[in-house]
Amino acid sequence: MDLLRTSLAASTMLASSLLTTAALAQEAAPSAPPQPAAEDTAAPQGDIVVTGSRITASGFTAPTPTQVLSTEDLTKGAQPNVFTTIAQLPSLQGSTGASVGANGTSTGVQGLSTLSLRGLQPIRTLTLLDGQRVVGANVTGVADVSLFPQLLIKRVDVVTGGASASYGSDAVGGVVNFVTDTRFEGFRANAMSGISTYGDNANYTFQAAAGKAFMDDRLHVIVSGEYSHEDGIPSAGFGVGNSPDGDGPNGRDWMTAVGLINRGITDDGSPQYLYRNHVQSSLNSMYGLITSGPLAGTAFDRNGNPYQFQYGNECYNGSCVGGDLSGSVANGNSLMSEITRLNSYGRIGFDIDPDNEIYTTVNVARVRTSNTPNPGFAQFGNLTMQCSNPYVPASIQQACAENEITSFGYGVNNAMFDNIDVHTQREQYRFVAGAKGKFPVFGSDWRYDAYYEHGTEITNINVYNIALMPRYRAAIDAVAGPDGTITCASAAAVASGCSPLNIFGGSAPSAAAASYIEPAYGPYQHTRQTQDVASIAFNGEPFALPAGPVSIAFGGEYRHEFYRVTADPYGNGVNGATGSSYSEEYPADPLLDTNGGNWYAGNYRNGSGAYDVYEGFLEVNVPIFKSDALGSANLNAAGRGTHYSTSGTVWTWKVGGTWATPLDGITLRGVTSRDIRAPNLSELYAAPVTSNRTGTVDPFNNRVVTVLQTTTGNPNLTPEIARNTEVGIVLSQPEWLPGLSLSLDYFHIKIDDAIASLDAQTQINLCYGGVEFTCGSFDLSDPNAAYVTLQPFNFSSIMTDGFDIEASYQTDLEGLGLPGRLTLRGLATNTRNYITDTGLPGTIPHQLAGVNIEATATPKWKLLLSQDYSTDKFSVRFQERWFSAGVLSNEYVVCTSNCPVSTVNNPTIDYNHVPGAFYVDFSTSVQVTPEVEAYFKVDNLFNRDAENVPGNVTTPTLYDVIGRAFRVGMRANF
Length: 974
Known about the structure:
Membrane topology: Multi-pass membrane protein
InterPro entries: Beta-barrel_TonB, Beta-barrel_TonB_sf, Plug_dom, Plug_dom_sf, TonB-dep_rcpt-like
Family: Belongs to the TonB-dependent receptor family.
Keywords: Cell outer membrane, Membrane, Receptor, Signal, TonB box, Transmembrane, Transmembrane beta strand, Transport
Radius of gyration: 30 Å
Subcellular location: Cell outer membrane
């Protein structure tokens, strides 16, 4: 911690002092999209470092397609976090960010900036920094790119194909490699501030970097620091999205409470599911609702006065359309997490001689986020209240007597309590020591690259304003004493400090009741992860064939991954007698279950795990022919053996090649590979984590029950095996139109033994449909103690295929009598198929291509266009982002009448459409001086609204939830 404070304080002071006069200037080196390589200033002149391969050789072109973002692309994106600019690439689908996971308590992804290729989730995309692994930012092992030194990024290579043979596990969807400027000299700075058109998500970013050479250009020292803050978009509370025109935080009128109503009737000719706006629960209300018995439908206003609840219409299984919508919580979560980043980085390199360097890097960074997963802590009709409860209004007590009942079912949102707040902090400490260079062997130069990396990630999650449910149930079970004093009915509860709570109405709880139910110390999870990597690689050209030299690369790597998580005793449980002392913050309480699971949500558990990996690889590039008549062709092949301490040895390979045809500018390329993804620490060793109690349909009894979902690991998992194939054609710089580059690539990925788990509702539905495999994972018999256990298994498969299209054109405008340069660029991804198959009896494959509501939503088309006009004095850029319309599910059968029988695999529905979206961004910059540039950026220029989807407000991986956003800043480059 002292190191973090010292390093971050120093970086912040440096940035503050230097940014008073200047900000970062853009580099003027635009990328040519289809060309997958760029020169590395640290490598000998003429050698090309290609992320898609371990071969380093002059003129080498890898067969694996690679998309490149240059410094200019990143700076003109003008984002507080470069992650946002990168994630807009069409091939990247399902990436997380500040707007993803903001509706969760136990997901652990709040504010986590991770990249996902092909919609295969971040766990199947390998993210590297200068070709080196990075310690995971959570127990899934994914790297948080917001912790990288952003001002020093020279380019980002996105390898859109499998690369396990070259880089090892996780590179199933591809690789994203952040290449830094290891020879940077001078000073850069950037100061930026922004706000949305709705007056929220105010943000500001300060960055500075400096580099200098000493000792006759042999010693190179680079430092950088960064501070960035985004306010996020907070919860708007109860009833959001239920006005006639929709409403949301700070005037976002696009938010409408959309839901699917399950009629529970499958064979009457009408659709089973109804798509409706303004859907609300009929099992609770903002200040309380009697849900069963002769008094059902009696609700209570803020003052505790009973009234007849307005259910609306089309009521089925706990949901209605319209009616009293004031207590709806469906759209009440944060739209975007608040996020604050501190980042410091340093590199020292020393040239032993002109061809060899030793170096060390230090990266110390921190990210803090906060979000509200939902307002209150709703009870969906699962409470049983006694008529004799002294808080029950006299008129209701009288009605109880008249109807000869002593209790009734009850649901309430508990709006008298503050909203739940989840605070997450991630700290990363990463240290690398390495050497690279070349040496002569038998008349040819051999290059080497060796490094050792140690990374530590410390994550703390703290949840505030959340209830201990055993205490809550004790507090609402109130009785009147002999003297008329209201107290808790349980003597044991009274002895432990219970103070009664009135949940009939919106009266604020007493300080004693509030602190008893929601203690100051809520759920917490402390995670420590470490990663140790030792790697060495060699490559050279041992001999030549008539068509050119043969290149060989080989090397080995050792990796150790470890994690330990510690949770609070109320969530995790304790060993020992009930009366034993837990701690000063979490004292023993006889009401609480010593096995844990006492919180409304955020019931984290202790856990730990580790594994070791030993790897060796060999790659070879063989020139096949080279002539004026035939052009030139090369064959590229690689193999890797990997031994996991958890699951044994597995082999990966790739075979590919390129043919630069004699036709002007045309190259053909293709590659096929066997890739793997090993189960991560979370999948293997995750201790049971209990998440939100959620309303779930019980088809066995045709009712809605509130279930406790528990996710746990599986130490018996084995690696996923993938087959990845890509073939394409490239047109680059033809003589008839210099400056033009085009590429078209077909991709096909098939993953077997994919690690997956089923969601709670699916497990229940499959069991109801006769799939016994899922029946032992839940118990719905007691509505007050219903639970579902979620666990990963190697039972699934994934297949996706489609096309990547890329085009760029650059030209000077002198021929038109205009100064400057015009750059046009377009990238598109067409996903033809994305099919998942559990392989379980009674199930069918699911086609997810065109489904726009999942966390890994994969529209059939995504497009990114840009038009840039730049001179020495100013620049103007427009950018367009578009994705195609989709559906809720490709398995739905759409009908309004004469519907076939609705089944688990093909349910009927009356509406199945999710609109696409088109966004326009604008940016401009002006050179104030040769070193200082002012810039202005508008994202979502026309304020295109996001779209609502059932159950999740919107799909933040696709839609822009912020709206029109303005940013202004200054950059300097000295």
